[in-house]
Design goal:
14 strands; about 40% helix; Endonuclease, Chain A; 13 helices
Length: about 375
């Protein structure tokens, strides 16, 4: 079952509460289907909480916003405006994508509420990942969503919409045998938790690291960890996006290719469609799926959420999926050919890199020199 059918089925089965967070909520077939399920749940008496980012959803929300606001669904907009006075604060967006239903079922990943075919140009559907979780971890996702809902409802003067107090853990909430956790990034207590989780696994890797990322522009600590892993003999493979979506970041990220390739890192660019994945597998034993890219926006600014799992079966399934994408739909970046790239491309890359570094410095998000 695909992501949207699974999400809609869970919403339709909801009995006590629904929390849903997304960066984009598009007025397209996928968004309309999810909205219809949410409205139906709210009308049958299920408290239904939907939070969307004010910047991410603005371009896509269309008439769905008014439809949700007319319904019993409780809709909050996270940071609805970006003003020149508070521009730096306004860059802190809600980029995570998660849902929690009844404290028993949850979804966490990188998939916005938008049709996979809703991409620039005529291309196959974008590629992205999300996981469905049950057990104690689903309850943890519910707690995280409820905490943010409480904060935003007070800030938005919607105190009557404050989430109810956490219920007791549902009876029969089996723990199973898998080890997994929800890891979030915010601008308070969890500023570097997601990056730290990556670094811990990269630094302990002995065999293989596979990272698939839509926007790859890591800071110095992350780059050094990846290069060090490759130099000690770990097979490091990066699956990155070949298609141009955001011009500045697209070319700036390529300024890092040379040092990575020189260290033995394998770089493949996904060419079949837009790559929106934010996942990784280390040594076939650890995996992460979530909303966080490895770039300044995700690592230094946005609210993000990832699932990390120390489970070989899950990690192997994700690894197999990534290797199929690498083998069937990607183009390898060859070191010698990259060194001979045209002058015009070199200029675009270094201009983009310089501008990106300047912007990071201007807004004070250098991460204590990390960038």
């Amino acid at each position: 079952m695909g992501y949207f059918p699974a999400l809609i089925a869970a919403i339709e089965a909801a009995r006590s509460e629904i929390f849903l967070e997304t960066y984009i909520f598009a007025d397209d077939p996928a968004g309309q289907a999810v909205a219809a399920a949410l409205i139906a749940a709210a009308r049958r008496g299920v408290p239904t909480h939907v939070m969307v980012d004010g910047f991410g959803a603005k371009r896509y929300f269309g008439a769905l916003r008014a439809e949700l606001e007319r319904s019993p669904v409780q809709l909050l907009i996270y940071r609805p405006e970006v003003t020149p006075i508070a521009f730096r604060q306004g860059l802190r967006r809600l980029h995570r994508k998660l849902a929690a239903i009844d404290g028993r079922v949850a979804f966490v990943g990188g998939i916005n509420i938008i049709d996979d075919h809703n991409c620039p140009g005529q291309t196959p559907p974008r590629v992205d990942f999300a996981v469905r979780v049950e057990g104690p971890l689903a309850f943890d996702v519910r707690a995280e969503a409820a905490d943010l809902w409480l904060i935003v409802s007070w800030v938005s003067f919607r105190r009557k919409w404050a989430a109810p107090p956490p219920p007791a853990r549902p009876e029969g909430l089996g723990a199973g045998f898998q080890r997994a956790a929800l890891v979030v990034r915010d601008n308070f207590r969890h500023r570097s938790d997601i990056e730290d989780a990556y670094l811990q696994e990269i630094e302990s890797a002995t065999d293989e690291i596979v990272i698939a990322c839509a926007y790859f522009f890591p800071g110095r600590r992350f780059r050094r960890a990846v290069v060090a892993a490759a130099r000690r003999g770990v097979i490091v493979t990066l699956l990155l996006q070949r298609r141009v979506e955001y011009v500045l970041l697209h070319y700036a990220s390529r300024a890092l290719y040379g040092s990575m390739l020189d260290a033995g890192v394998r770089i493949h660019e996904y060419s079949r469609s837009f790559l929106h994945a934010k996942v990784a597998v280390v040594d076939g034993r650890w995996a992460t799926v979530g909303s966080s890219n490895i770039d300044p926006f995700s690592l230094l600014l946005a609210r993000e959420a990832n699932i990390v799992a120390g489970d070989r079966r899950f990690a192997q399934e994700l690894r197999d999926a990534l290797h199929r994408m690498i083998e069937e739909a990607s183009v390898p970046v060859e070191r010698l050919r990259w060194r001979k790239k045209p002058l015009a491309l070199r200029v675009r890359i270094w201009l983009a890199y310089g501008v990106s570094r300047l912007l990071i410095g201007v807004f004070g998000y250098g991460g204590r020199g990390n960038y």
